[in-house]
Amino acid sequence: MRTIAVLNQKGGVGKTTTVVNTAAALAAVGLKVAVLDLDPQAHLTIHLGVEPENIDSGSYKLLTQSAKFEEELLLVRPNLWLLPANINLVGAESELVSVVGRETILREALQSAEDKFDYAFIDCPPSLGLLTLNALAAAEEVLIPLQPHFLALQGFGKLLQTVELVNKRINPNLKVKWILLCMFESRASLPNEVRADIEQFLNNARGTSCAWAAAQVLPCFIRRNIKLAEAPSYGKTIFEYEPSCHGSEDYKKVAEFIHTQLQPASQPKIQPAALGENQEPPIEIKSVSQPDLQTPPSEFTQPTIAPAPSES
User: Fold this and answer.
1) CA–CA gap between residue 294 and residue 141 (Å, rounded)
2) What distance in Å separates the CA atoms of residue 298 and residue 214, rounded to the nearest whole number?
3) Model confidence pLDDT, tens digit, residues 185-211
């Protein structure tokens, strides 16, 4: 199982949108994907159509009550499972302050699911506290969504320092793999300048022992698209809400790149397969009602659908 933490201490940069839609694209081709909501705001939970107030299970129980990871998951789409969150997660950090090994609770909980899922995406809160520390201790790969303007770069160095600290003291396998530029406008000069600055910074780290020595800016960026902002209010992924928009095209490319281009050499290539009627889920998991409108699974490697001329 590849465990990927989607991280940025700045809010509103596209973390939850990236987790939902990248995971949905991978799940649509038959890969088993779990998404973990570690944000007390529960935006990931809401985005997938689950009301946080209506759930008793989730990341809070897993972190504070030693609940089993498999027992707290909800099946929310074919091949897509959710570890939900609610407002109770706010108290998790204070409740765990005196717990020995509190930084590695999530990592230990995920060990039982290593052979049951292909991917686990962790949606981190917009802070660098204990919840984020648990995510970094459990993950091996870090994806950083970033808006391409200079204010968004202010906390970038601190974020990398935090990853480096976790890499040295808690999780030596943790590496920053990708920077994903969101809300990108290729015709404007500023986003391209910021992208060049980030690439230069990453190039300077090549050959060093730092946790971002092998990081790269993803060649596929997320264009500014209003449909991506509208989809969460309907509890739908972008592929269910508007499958032919720019956002759908872009996240299919991101999912394809992460899966096929940067798959670890030690891991055999997973052959995508549609979910059959008689195919057993990897574990016994509770399910929740799904939105009525569902898009049939389709290969994200299919030719991209050209947008309508009027779409911006």
Assistant:
1) 30
2) 31
3) 777 778 888 888 888 888 988 988 899
- Residues whose CB is less than 8 angstroms from the CB of residue 295 and which lie 6 or more positions away in sequence, other chains included: 28, 239, 240, 243
Phi, psi of 287 (to 5 degrees): -120, 160
Query: Residue 55 has what pLDDT?
Result: 85
Q: What is the mean pLDDT of the chain?
A: 83
What is the per-residue pLDDT for 261? 65
pTM here is: 0.82
Supply 258's token pair: 């992460």
Q: Coil, strand, or helix at residue 4? A: strand
**Token couple for 274:** 């549609």
The length of the chain is 312
Q: How confident is the model at residue 75 (pLDDT cuts 50, 70, 90)?
A: very high
Q: Which residue has tokens 């391409």?
A: 148
Structure tokens at 290: 């799904």
- Helix, strand, or coil (residue 34): strand
Phi and psi angles of residue 268, each rounded to the nearest 5 degrees, phi first: -65, 145
Sign of the CA dihedral 183, 185, 191, 192?
positive
Rounded to an integer, what distance in angstroms lies between the CA atom of residue 249 and that of residue 306? Answer: 9
Amino acid at 91: G
What is the C-alpha separation between 21 and 84, in angstroms, rounded? 16
What is the Cβ-side half-sphere exposure of residue 228, based on CA atoms within 13 angstroms? 25
pLDDT of residue 299: 52
Which 3 state secondary structure label does DSSP give 303? coil
Separation CA 206–CA 215 (nearest Å): 9
Vertex 73, ends 274 and 112: CA angle to 5°? Answer: 90
Pairing of strands 80-83, 74-77: antiparallel
Q: Scanning the structure block, which residue is given the tokens 């765990």?
A: 96
Evaluate whether 81 touches 75 at the Cβ level (below 8 Å): yes
pLDDT band at 28 (very low <50, low <70, confident <90, very high): very high
Query: Contact, 132 vs 38, CB < 8 A?
Result: yes
